[in-house]
Amino acid sequence: MSIAFCFTPSSSNASLSKPNPHLPFLSSSSPPPPPTSLHLRLSLSPSSLSLHHNNNNPHRHLLTAFSAANDAVSFPGGDDNNNNNNNGNSGGGGGGGGDEGSSAEDKNREEALMVLAEAGRSLKNLPKDLAAAIEAGRVPGAVVSRFLELEKSPVMRWLMQFGAFKERLLADDLFLAKVFMECGVGMFTKTAAEYERRRENFFNELEIVFADVVMAILADFMLVFLPAPTVSLRPPLATSAGTIAKFFHNCPDNAFQVALAGTSYSFLQRLGAVVRNGTKLFAVGTASSLVGTAVTNALINARKAVNKDSAAEVENVPIISTSAAYGVYMAVSSNLRYQVLAGVIEQRILEPMLHQHKLWLSAVSFAVRTGNTFLGSLLWVDYARWIGVQQLQE
User: In this structure, what are the phi and psi dihedrals at residue 196, rounded to the nearest 5 degrees?
Assistant: First the structure.
C-alpha cells in the first residue's frame, strides 16, 4: 500500500475574501498564506498486505507496510519485500511457533530471576551452566527452586558439582534415593541368585560371589543413571560439529521424559535417546561382564590349582560369548524397561499422583523397581539359555 501527497497552489481566489475564524493571529489586512489543495492517491498491492495466522492463536494480525513519497518507511511486522527496502532490517512477526517459544523463554527467565530475587541470590553466585541456562530461558523457576533446596544439603551440594548428577537431581530430587534402591535390591537379588546356584559351595566360593555382586551393582548403577530424566544444562555444540553429533546432543536422556516449558522433543529425537542409551549400556554390559567373568575364571582356575578334586565340579565361564550376550541384553531389554520405568511409570504416573507424599512415592517406587529387577533376572536367564551361554542343570 502506498500513499502519495501532492500540494499545489489553488488558482481560485474566492476564499481569500473570507476571514478564517481559526486563524486569530492573522489580521484582515495582512495577506493570507497561499492556499493549497491536497491530492491524495491511495494504491493497494496484494504484496503489501500479509496475513499471519497461528493455529494455536485464533487471533489474526494484519501486517502492513507503508511508503510515503520517495522515502520508504517500514513498520515492525512488514513483509519481506518491504523490509528488504529498508536496508535489510527485518521487523517482528516471525512464525507463530517462534513467538510461542520466545514467550515461553521469557516466562522461564522471569520466573527464575524472581525466585533468585526472593532468595537473595544472583546469577553470579550460581554454577555457570545453570546461570547460562537461566539467561537463555531454558529452565523455569521450579528448577531454580529445586536447586536452592538441594543446595542446603552438604551431600547434594557436593554431588551437584558434577554436571551429570546435577542434571538428574534437578529433574528428580529422589534420584539419589532411587540409585540406592536399585543397587540395594540388585545386591540382594544377585546374592540370593548366587546362593541358589552354589548352595553348599556358597561360602567356599565367596570370592567369586563377591566379584559377581560387585559387577552387578556397577551395572545396576548405570541402569539407573543413564536412562534417568534430566534437566539439560549442556551448551549447544559448535557449528563445526557433525550432523549426527548435533542430533544426539539434542536428544533427551530419557525417551519418555516430560519436556520443560519452552522445550520440545520430536519423535525422532526420542527414538534417538533409546539408540544412544542402548549404545552406552551395551558398552557397560559388555565391559562389566568381561571383568566379572574374567575374575570368576581366574578364581576358579586358582581353586583348581590348589584343590585337584574341584577341577571337575566347576567349569570356566565362556568370556567372549557371555560378555557380548550380556551387552546385547542390557542394550535392548534393560534399556527399554528402565526407560519406561523412569520416564512413564515414575515421572508421568507416580510423581503427579504422589508428589506431595514423598514417603509414599519412595515406597511405591521401591516396589516397582524391585519387581522390575526380578523380571530382569528372569528374562536374562531365559535369554542366556535361549542363545546357549547357560545350560539347564540336570
Answer: -65, -35
The proportion of the chain whose per-residue pLDDT surpasses 70, expressed as a percent, equals 71
SS3 annotation, the chain? CEEEEEEEECCCCHHHHCCCCCCCCCCCCCCCCCCEEEEEEEECCHHHEEEEEECCEEEEEEEECEEECCEEECCCCCCHHHHHHCCCCCCCCCCHHHHHHHHHHHHHHHHHHHHHHHHCCCHHHCCHHHHHHHHCCCCCHHHHHHHHHHCCCHHHHHHCCCHHHHHHHHHCCCHHHHHHHHHHHHHHHHHHHHHHHHHHHCCCCHHHHHHHHHHHHHHHHHHHHCCCCCCCCCCCCCCCCCHHHHHHHCCCCCCCCCCCCCCCCCHHHHHHHHHHHHHHHHHHHHHHHHHHHHHHHHHHHHHHHHCHHHCCCCCCCCHHHHHHHHHHHHHHHHHHHHHHHHHHHHHHHHHHHHCCCHHHHHHHHHHHHHHHHHHHHHHHHHHHHHHCCCCCCC
Residues 324, 312: Cα–Cα separation, whole Å: 26
Mean of the pLDDT values across residues 303-316? 67
Residue 281 pLDDT > 90, yes or no? Answer: yes
Maximum separation of any 2 CA atoms in the chain, in Å: 139
pLDDT band at 145 (very low <50, low <70, confident <90, very high): very high
Dig out the grid coordinates for 275 from the structure.
539408540
Tell how strand 49-54 and strand 66-68 pair up.
unpaired
Rounded distance, CA 117 to CA 120, Å? 5
How many other C-beta atoms are found inside a 10 Å radius of the C-beta of residue 213?
Answer: 19
- Residue reference for cell 570370592: 207
* Section 220-245 average pLDDT: 90
Which pTM does this prediction carry?
0.70
Q: Which helix (H) or strand (E) holds 60?
A: strand 57-64
7-16, 317-326, 353-362: which is most confident: 353-362
Residue 330 neighbours by CB distance under 10 Å: 28
Task: Give residue 237's pLDDT band: very low, low, confident or very high (50, 70, 90).
Answer: confident
Output the pLDDT for position 201: 75
